[in-house]
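Morning!

This is the sequence you dropped in the shared folder:
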Amino acid sequence: MGDLLGVTVTPVQPYAATKEYLCPGCELTVPPGTFHLVVVPDEAPDLRRHWHHGGGQKGMRRQFGAAQASRR
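The structure's back. Tokens below.
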């Protein structure tokens, strides 16, 4: 997770995942109770997205590039 530039990546544990989201990487739902990642672009926090953990990492690298990301 620590190789993305310009984004903050925050893991969401299953007990804290209470809503359903649409993963922009695979366009499938992230159901409640599923571990996932919240990705917030540093320059555009209103574009926050919820990604699946495994396959989402590849999509995030494509979208945001490789470098060092800030983590919460």
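Headline: The mean pLDDT is 80.

More detail when I'm at my desk.
O.
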